[in-house]
Each structure stands twice: as structure tokens, then as C-alpha cells.
Amino acid sequence: MLRIGLSTSVKAAKAFPRVQRGFLSTPLKTLGSSGRISSSFQAGGLRFNSTSSGEKFEIQNKLVSFDEPVEAEKIVSTLTSNEWGYLDSIGLAQGWGPTAFVERYLEAVHIFSGLPWWGTIAVSTVIARMILFPLYMSASSNGAKLAKVKPEMDEILSSLKKAESNQEKYVLVQDRKRLMKDNDIKFYKQVYPMLQLPIAYGFFQALRKMSAYPVEGFADQGYAWFENLTQVDPYLGLHGISAALILAIVRAGGETGQQQAMTAPMKKVLMLLPFLSIIITKDFYASVMIYVATNSLCSMVQTFVLRNGTFRKLFKMPPTTVNAPAPGKKQPETISDWFRQQKESFDEQVHSRTKETSRKLEAQVLRRRDGTDGFIKRHNK
């Protein structure tokens, strides 16, 4: 290590360039035992020390270590959580992504409703699901139409897998399109419920960040046994409620209310869902679990509403039907039977594709042997 001592005037010290905050280091000012104010900063391998009596440069032979833990400094705001702009003043609700959008949305509901934070999260979740409800209605109607023609659709798809010539495939594809057009079926409507994913992601990230900061009021504006929203639910009550609601939703036919024919292995798998969900969410903040539980409750209510015959007649929606399995197909009784059936189906598809490829190669060889069949002969001049 090399030390170089320099005596400079106060003007020279002021003229020395300062390292901006957020670059390699941050200027620091300390008050020594003698009462003199000293400033220091470190950039790369150079460290600069200054006092009122003089300055010293210290050149190091090693770079600054980035492994040392740095304690994050929390921003102190002059605003309260009941004032607009509070989240922005502490570094949240910035940008235009789903997380920032949900943070602004939660702040607006909290301010204009006057609800505590647990009520703000629950009400915000209900409002978001009400906005998405028309999309679920459209997906439910489309699913009912698709279930009505499922036997014909399965027959066409089965024939399409077994077709060997391109002409046969073309005819079957046209038949499928005609069937969908006659019954007003649109496959893209089935993905409408997927629009909830970016919103769910925004809620999860927003509440996680707001709990970790924590936002003012999160520590004491909970309810019942989960009073502190910045901690994990001590009794896992919200986790258990969410798991039970998820199981009820799946057994009732999903969020669109369209019933599915469940095999025995599928029923056994569904019995494990509540336990898996508790294990996955056991370390989530109570604020996040309020959203999960409320969202699950909304899904269950939506499921039973979309299955109600009176509601469907009122909004001119086709009645729900059970998506029965294809006729003549044996249903697996155990999970091993299901895996065996899937393997047989995969092997059948591979065999069909191999057979088709071999047929094309054989036809290509025959055409090359006969130059008059679709090939142009090259004549030497």
C-alpha cells in the first residue's frame, strides 16, 4: 500500500471531484474527536481523506469488496399512508408494470374507502374479480358449446391422428372448422381466465414488497388472529381456508362452472391439493394470504353462480353439460393405469408419425426413379 501526503488549500480541496451517489461509493462525513469535520470517499482502489488541516490520498492495491453486507436505508416520508403519494414517497408505486399498478390501486382504495389495510386488500380483490367476471361468463358459454359437440370433435381428432394422406387431413381439418363455425365456438375465449395471471402476480409482488418495507399500518391494521400483516399467519388459518376453497372450486368444475368428468386417479390427486397449497404458502405474509383467501372465495362464488340455471337463462348462456370422456375409451382406475394409458397414446402417435414419414420417403424414392413423374429432367447441351 502506498500513501502520498499532500497539503492543499481549501480551494483545492473544494475543487476535487466528488463521486456521485450510486456510483462506486458514497461520500461520508464524520465528526472526529477533535471536533473537526472530515470527509472520505473510496472509488476503485483510491481513497481520499480530508480534514480542515489537509488532505491525504491513499492508493490501495486491491479493489473494493462487494461481499460485505450493506444495510438498506429506509426512506422516511413526511406523508402518512392515508395521503395520496405516500407509497411513491417511500420508493413504491413507481413505473408502469403490474406491481406498480396494483400498488397505486391499493393506495387509492385505502384512501377513498377509509378501510384498514386488511379490508383494503379484501375489497380491492373483490372489485378486481367483478371487473373480470364478464370474461369468465364468455369462457363459460364457449365451454358449454364445446362440451355439446365434444363427441363429434373427438371423432374428428381421432380420425385426424390416423389419417395417412394430406388430402384426408385437409378434409378432416375443414370438417372441424365447419363444426366450430356452426356452433359459434371460439378457442381463444377459453384463455380469457388466463388474463387474471398478471393481476395475481401484481397483487403478490405488491403486497410482498409493502409488507417487507413495511408500509405504515401494516403492522397493526390486520384482523382477528392475523393482526400483523407483516408476519406469517401464526395459526395458518388463512392457508387452511384457501386450501378448502380451492378444493371446492376444482370439484365444482372450475371457475367457469363447466363440469368435468373426473377419473379415479384425478380425484386422488385433487385430495392432495389442499396439503400442497398449505406447504407452498406456509411462509407467505398474512397480507398476501388475505388476497389468496379472498380471491379463492370469489372464485367459489363465481363457480356456483355460473352453474346456476336461472342465471344462465337470464343472460342467455347455454346450459352447462358434463364433459364426458370419449366413448369406447376405458377409464383408468389407478394412477399407474393413467400413466400406462398416456404412454400407450404417446407410442401410438409416434408409430403413426413414423409410418407417415416412411411412406413419404418411399414415395420420394419412387419419383426419383421415374423421371417423368413430377421431376424435370436436365439435358446436357
UniProtKB/TrEMBL annotation:
Keyword Cytoplasm appears in the UniProt entry: no
Cellular component aspect of the GO annotation: mitochondrial inner membrane
UniProt-recorded Gene Ontology molecular function terms: membrane insertase activity
UniProt superkingdom: Eukaryota
Single GO biological process annotation from the record: protein insertion into mitochondrial inner membrane from matrix
Chain segments annotated as transmembrane: none
Membrane topology: Multi-pass membrane protein
Entry keyword Glycosyltransferase: no
Protein localization: Membrane; Mitochondrion inner membrane
Major localisation: membrane
Coiled coil (residue ranges): none
InterPro entries from the UniProt entry: YidC/ALB3/OXA1/COX18, YidC/Oxa/ALB_C
Location of the Membrane insertase YidC/Oxa/ALB C-terminal domain: 117-307
Keywords assigned by UniProt, alphabetized: Membrane, Mitochondrion, Mitochondrion inner membrane, Transit peptide, Transmembrane, Transmembrane helix
Family the entry assigns: Belongs to the OXA1/ALB3/YidC family.
PANTHER family: MITOCHONDRIAL INNER MEMBRANE PROTEIN OXA1L (PTHR12428:SF66), OXA1 (PTHR12428)
Name of the molecule in the record: Membrane insertase YidC/Oxa/ALB C-terminal domain-containing protein
